[in-house]
């Protein structure tokens, strides 16, 4: 009986089997730094973007108020001043405008440093002469509304924003030159 033994000698000398923990952590840290730099530079944190988003929200809520006025068969109003805007609903039983405090129609501030200029074609006093605290813009139960033009200017931009409607078509946002 013959027994043979084979001995294998490794020809590779001291080759590392992978990355060290330090190398992996350095690469992960570099990826994190690069990713955060890209996200910060391309994120919509720009003041113009935020202003446009606020105006888009305003137009959406106005359109929702138009639908709600038609569904409830009640006139609605929008009160606009330099600080904020809010919605009211006319209650004919008590002859008053009741402020809407639900989440969608709550009092909402304008963007910081925005100057507001409102132009309406028809004054609310011609419809509701005997009522105090009239809204600046009327939304009728027929889904029509008083034609208006709202101009927003900011100190940081050479352009202004215009929100407008003819009273029948949807409210739209336009960017214009001064």
Protein model, in words:
Helix content is 27%, strand content 28%. The chain has helices at 21-42, 47-72; strands at 76-80, 84-91, 96-99, 108-109, 114-120, 137-139, 148-154, 159-165, 172-177. It starts with 20 loop residues before the first helix and ends with a strand. The chain has 178 residues and is α+β, with helices and mostly antiparallel strands. It has a single domain, classed as minor pseudopilin epsh domain (minor pseudopilin epsh fold, 3-Layer(bab) Sandwich), CATH 3.55.40. Strands 1, 2, 3, 4 and 6 form a five-stranded antiparallel β-sheet that branches. It has a four-stranded antiparallel β-sheet with strand order 5-7-8-9, covered by helices on one side. The radius of gyration is 31 Å and the shape is elongated. The protein contains two helices and nine strands. The longest helix is centred in the middle third of the chain and has 26 residues, at 47-72.
Say what the CATH topology is.
minor pseudopilin epsh fold
How far apart the termini lie comes to 105 Å
Can you summarize the main beta sheet?
5 strands, antiparallel
Going by helix content, strand content and strand pairing, the class is alpha+beta
Content of β-strand = 25-35%
The fourth-level CATH homologous superfamily is minor pseudopilin epsh domain
Average pLDDT for all residues? 82
Question: Low-confidence spans: pLDDT under 50, at least 5 residues?
Answer: none
Helix content: 25-40%
CATH architecture: 3-Layer(bab) Sandwich
The number of domains: 1
How many β-strand runs?
9
CATH class: Alpha Beta
Give the count of helical stretches.
2
Q: How do the SSEs run, as a string of H and E?
A: HHEEEEEEEEE
Radius of gyration: 31 Å
Q: Assign an overall shape.
A: elongated
